[in-house]
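S1.2 Input.
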Amino acid sequence: MLLLFFFLLLPNLSPAERCHPNDRNALLKFKNSFSNSNLLPSWTPQFDCCYIFKCNESTNRVIELTLTYSDLSGKIPDAVGDLTYLQTLRLHHMPFIVGEIPPAIGKLKHLLSLDISWTNISGEIPPFLSNLPNLMFLDLSFNKLTGQIPPSLSKFPKIIGIDLSRNQLTGPIPETFGHFPDTVTSPAILLSHNKLSGDIPASLANTNFFRVDLSRNNFTGDASMFFGRNKTGDTIVLSRNNFEFNFSRVSFMVSLVTLDISHNRIYGNIPLQITDDFMLQQLNVSYNILCGEIPTGWKLRPTLAPTNDFTSSSSTTTTTTTLLSDHFAERIGAPFSSSFSFFLQRQGMKDCDQVRRRRRRVSRNSGKHYAKPAAVGFYIQGIDMIVA
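S1.3 Output.
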C-alpha cells in the first residue's frame, strides 16, 4: 500500500510529457509558418516531439530537427531559432523552401551540423553563420545562393567540412581560408559548380585540406599549393577550370585516393613519385598539356570496401564516376573503392621540349594546345589506363 501511495505522488510520466513545452511551442510555430502546414498532421498541441525528433536523454530538449524530401512551402521560419538546444538542423531536398537564410539560425549556439541543401533558398551566405561556435559541418549545396564566399567562414573553431557546391557564387576564394584556427586540422572544402574565379590565394598552402573540390568554376593560375608530400588529404578535384602550372614540380601525399586535374592548362610531365601512392583509386589528367612518359612501377594495393559506383560507358573513352555521395558526412569521408581508373585523353606531345617551345608560341587563350590522338586502353597491375 505504501509503494502504491508513492507512485501516485509521482508526476504523470506519459510519453507526451517528455517534450519540453518551449520546444513544442517552437515546433508548432515552425509548422504554422508554412502555407501548407497540413503536410505535418502529427504536429499537434499534444504531440510528443521527443517521439518524432531526437531529444537529449536527460533534459528532453530537442537536439535534432531533420526534414527531408518534403513539399513544405515558404521561407525557413524564424521559430527555428527558438529550438535553442539544437545540435543538428537538416532541411534537405525541399524544393519549395525559398527566401534567405534567417538570422534566427545564428541563435543556435549548440549547433554541430547545419545542412540546408537541395532547396531554393537564395541571397548571399550570411556572415553571422561564423558565430556558431560549435559548428563542424556546413552544407549549403544545391541552392541558389549568390554573392561571394564570406571570409568569416574561416573562423569556425571546430569546422570539419564546408560544402557550398552547386550554387551561383562568384568572386575568389577568401584569403582567410589559409588561416583557419589552430583547432582546425584538416577541413574539407567543396566549391564545385559555381561561378567562382580568380587565382587561388597562396595562403591556402598553410591549410592541410582533407578534401578539395573546385571543379567547374573559372579559377586561374596556380593550384599546386593543394599538393605536398607532408599533407594528408585524400581528394583533390580541380577539373574544368583554367589552372596553369607545372605538374612536374608537384609532390603527392601518400594518402591520396582521388586526383582529377582534367580540362585545364596544366603542363609538364607526370611525376614518378605518384606511383608510390598505393591508396590511389582515380587519376584523371585528361585535356591538359602534359608530356613525357607515363610512369611505371605502380605500387597500388587492393582496398577492402568497394563502395563508390564506378560505371564505364566505354572501355576507352568515357567513365561516369560517383565521387561523393548525397549525404554530406559521406561526401567528406567516403570509404575506398576497390577500383582504380587512370585517364590521360588528349594531352599535348610526347616530347616535353617541343611542348615548351609550343607553349611560348601559342596564346594562353587560343585553346589550340591539344592534339587529338586516338585513345588506347591497356591494363597494368590492376590499373585501367586510357592513354593518348
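S1.4 Remarks. Confidence is low (pLDDT under 50) at residues 1-16, 304-338, 363-388.
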